[in-house]
Amino acid sequence: MTQTAVCFDLDDTLYDYHEYARAGLAAAADLVHRRSGKRVHGDLLSAYFDPNVDAGTFDVLLESYDLPSLTVDDLVDAFHDGAHAPLDPYPETERVLDALGTEHALGLITDGRGGQSKLDRLGIRDHFDSVLVTHDHGRSKHERGVFEEFLADLDVHPTRATYVGDDPRVDFRAPNELGMTTVRLRRGRYVDLEPEDDAAAPDYEIATLDGLLSAIPTMHVERGVVE
Questions:
Q1: Are 108 and 10 a contacting pair, CB within 8 Å?
Q2: Domain boundaries, the chain
Q3: Residues sharing a CB contact under 8 Å with residue 49, sequence separation 6 or more, in sequence order
Q4: What parts of the chain have a pLDDT lower than 50?
Q5: Residue 180, phi then psi, degrees to nearest 5
Q6: What is the pTM (predicted TM-score) of this model?
Q7: What is the predicted pLDDT for the residue at 226?
Q8: What is d(CA 126, CA 48) in angstroms, rounded to the nearest whole number?
Q9: Which phi and psi (to 5°) does residue 217 adopt?
Q10: Which pLDDT score is estimated for 220?
């Protein structure tokens, strides 16, 4: 158990989730058009990206239109399953993964539905030595066991592993408890969201993934990890 590992979240950490959402919303709107003849593409986009809309986007849509042949579940399924166009990683993602992969084992843990498909659409699957899409197993990153499974899979001690995510609600509490190093990417949908308490706060913050290349060696020195 001598190697080090860096594990990533996926949505908003390695790519802009809004790109996935736009494709999914278009697929859901296409379903509405096929079933009802109504064109809702513009309204669906507006509701999804309106920060003042607290209710679920599809609930708002069904309340606004008479769509008896559709349910929220139908639209959610279309959102996640109906779009297959390629997705673009952040500009620096592949460069950073290439660089880190020469020194560390790389893993990915995501709660996001359709994680396997997203990896294929992003074209970055081959960078990872371990991938866990918790949704496929009825689990979530709230569970310590998810991170313990990652550590066991790569045979890495918690103090030699780093987890990189963007959402303080789910990304840092469990790995913090295990003694992993946690890094928050301040980017994406949750850029302004603060942790609810110290236990959910990351050890470090970065503005772009490029920051990992200089930060990880420093983190390891501070935490007593000898390369």
A1: yes
A2: 5-16+88-222, 18-81
A3: 18
A4: 1, 226-227
A5: -75, 155
A6: 0.88
A7: 46
A8: 32
A9: -60, -40
A10: 63
Check: CB of residue 198 under 8 Å from CB of residue 27: no
pLDDT of 223 reads 61
- DSSP output for 130-144: EEEEGGGGT--TTSH
Residue whose tokens read 């190697």: 3
Tell me yes or no: is domain 5-16+88-222 CATH 3.40.50.1000.
Answer: yes
Q: Determine the distance from the C-alpha atom of residue 181 to the mean position of all C-alpha atoms in its chain, rounded to a whole number.
A: 18
- Per the CB < 8 A criterion, the answer to whether 118 and 20 are in contact is yes
Q: Which two tokens stand for residue 157?
A: 């001690």
Alpha-helix residue ranges (DSSP H) falling in the chain: 17-36, 41-49, 57-64, 72-81, 93-101, 115-122, 144-154, 173-178, 211-222
Contacts of 17 (CB under 8 A, 6+ apart): 11, 188, 189
Residue 163: how many CB atoms within 10 A of its CB? 28
